[in-house]
From TrEMBL:
This is Glutamate 5-kinase. Keywords: Amino-acid biosynthesis, ATP-binding, Cytoplasm, Kinase, Nucleotide-binding, Proline biosynthesis, Transferase. It catalyses: L-glutamate + ATP = L-glutamyl 5-phosphate + ADP. Its main location: cytoplasm. It holds the Pfam family AA_kinase. Belongs to the glutamate 5-kinase family. It comes from Anabaena subtropica FACHB-260. Its EC number is 2.7.2.11. Residues 278-361 form the PUA domain. The gene is proB.
Amino acid sequence: MTKTIVVKIGTSSLTQPETGQLALSTIATLAETLSHLRQQGNRVILVSSGAVGVGCARLGLTERPKAIALKQAVAAVGQGRLMRVYDDLFTTLQQPIAQVLLTRSDLVQRSRYLNVYNTFRELLALGVIPVVNENDTVAVDELKFGDNDTLSALVASLVEADWLFLLTDVDRLYSADPRSVPDARPISLVTSIKELADLQVQTGTQGSQWGTGGMVTKISAARIAIAAGVRTVITQGRFPSNITKIIQGELIGTHFQPQPEPTSARKRWIAYGLVPSGKLYLDSGAIAAIVQAGKSLLAAGIKTVGGEFEPQDAVQLLDTQGNEIARGLVNYSSNDLEKICGCHSKEIPTILGYIGAETVIHRDNLVLT
């Protein structure tokens, strides 16, 4: 049966840790594995990090640049080199590829989000393997994905993939970092969002010298993907051929079981595609109404408003401790919400001087996170 498979490979797997030079044997095996999957009729997308790391090696830089302008310049040098290597290897295997560079703003606007979806759909229908990376050359900090783990999960969600593979420098998820805690317990299967929340506390945030990721970003990516119904696997990047074995049923790496009833594509866009402009802190009654009863958010349940935003912007809904509960598209600006938070809906016209929506966020525009 044909599957849609998204594979993300990190800088730590693509490069030699000592020098930052490309690990060509790993990349060649990856190209062979993905080409074979494509020949079997599967739809395959590769999300590849490495542009900045390859650019550093190309320019003789001994550490990853921190200044945004320098990082963007180095990424421009590295991306061309990285695609040349991929194109040479995939061409040898008679597999066409395409470069797709994305920024967060490509997913923020609904029309552009749908355009990206249509581009992927056409490329996959043509039998092409899209090679995706964040467009580091033009991305600004406020509209960066931050890491390709998040990008790969959003792509997997967008195309409604069956599998997302996060290839990294450890063989699976552990209860602690096995490089510093010898008796760390390996974790083979994660079955619920609740387990993810528990695991997040136990993982380090540090990526490799040349990369930006870490295990926390992979768990966050898994949360996005499984909400979309995508089975997600963290496994060793040095052995890309394991991808085929895993699809055939071998329990290699850490598997994240997808939610049985995925959230709708539009709600996934609201939850993960948009960048929140503000925060609404809710009382316990409003949280219960949203989480347990699936209700809309009313002004009466809002305790505090944070940030500046306009109607139809995305906002985070938080409890009083600052834990995120949900996200949604708001019907009022932050200025107006400051005036009506904690008030009954029937008081809104009197306070604001106009008849607005009864709900601050309608349940159709609200998604639990």
